[in-house]
Structure formats: structure tokens, C-alpha cells
Amino acid sequence: MTALSAAETILRVAGLNAAYAAAIDDDRLEDWPAFFLDQCLYKITSADNIRDGNEAGIIYADSRAMLADRVLSIRRANVFERHSYRHIVGMPVAHASRDGIAAETPFVVVRTMRDGRMDLFVAGRYCDRLVDNGGRLQLRERVVICDSSRFDTLVAIPL
Fold it and tell me: Which of 105, 104, 109 is nearest to 24 (CA)?
């Protein structure tokens, strides 16, 4: 990969991450599944699980349809205190792989509750496999690796 194409790749991944975060933070959850291919993997897990070789995640979906179903359940079935997120997403480290782009991006999410209370909800990194699908980057895989293995029971909204 040339220096220019490496820089272009990083900018494309950063752009996808910014749009992804905005969709979640702006409560446009119905837009969230479109960031993924039809056959994909989305998982939230901890750094401890990754280090110990445990494949389990607290959230797991292996298709865009499962992601859309998750949004539907958030809107219609799940009962939780209203809150919102604000993602702060770092610059990705990205490189070409044999099947697209591999990227790792640090992030922090601040959660604001209905009463105005804010707290640092989660810090971690996105480990992604992306593909160019007709000029548009899409996620084949996003593994959200949280630095802490302590999870709030209120992980309702995607990270």
C-alpha cells in the first residue's frame, strides 16, 4: 500500500467511524445496521475475554437482520431508562488485508441519563474487518472490545 493509499484508507475508516457514531449518538438507530454487510459479525466483549481466548460476548449478532431486530426490540420491547451516548472516536490504525481492510480504533462513550447525569460509560477499541462495497465501506466484522470486564446492566444501545 502506498503512503497516499494508506492515508486514504485511514480517512475512509475514520469517516465510517464518525458516521457510525453520529447515527447512534443522534438516535438514528434504524440507520445503524446499514453500516454492516448482510452477513456480518457484531460482538461486544471484554479485553479479559479476548486475552483468555473466550469467544463469548455480552451482545452477539451474525447478520444485518439480527442487528435490525435488535433496533426493533430497543424501540418496542426493551424496558430501560432513557439515555443517550456521545462517542469520542480516535484515529484508526488500518491496513489492507487479503479480504479488505483491517482496522483498530480506540473509543470512549459518555452516557447521559434522562436526569442529566453524565458518566464515562465505556472505553475500548473497535477491531474491524471492512470491505469496499461499490465504493462504500461496510463492516464485515466489528468486535467491540471493552477495556473493563465490568458491564453495566444498561448496555441496550449499540456501542
Answer: 109
Q: Which domain holds residue 100?
A: 3-146
pTM of the complete model beyond 0.90: yes
Task: Confirm whether 151 is domain-assigned.
Answer: no
Q: Which residues pair with 142 in a beta bridge?
A: 42, 128
Asked whether residue 119 is domain-assigned, the answer is yes
Strand residue runs (E) in 47-135: 59-61, 83-89, 93-97, 100-113, 118-133
Domain annotation covers residue 154: no
How confident is the model over 34-52, as pLDDT tens digits? 999 999 999 999 999 999 9
Q: Is residue 126 included in any domain, yes or no?
A: yes
Spatial CA neighbour of 156 closest among 104, 90, 111, 116: 111
**DSSP per residue over 114-157, as a string?**
TTS-EEEEEEEEEEEEEEEETTEEEEEEEEEEES-S---TT--S
Query: What is the count of structural domains for the chain?
Result: 1
CATH code, domain with 37:
3.10.450.50
**Helix (H) or strand (E) run with residue 76 in it:** helix 64-76
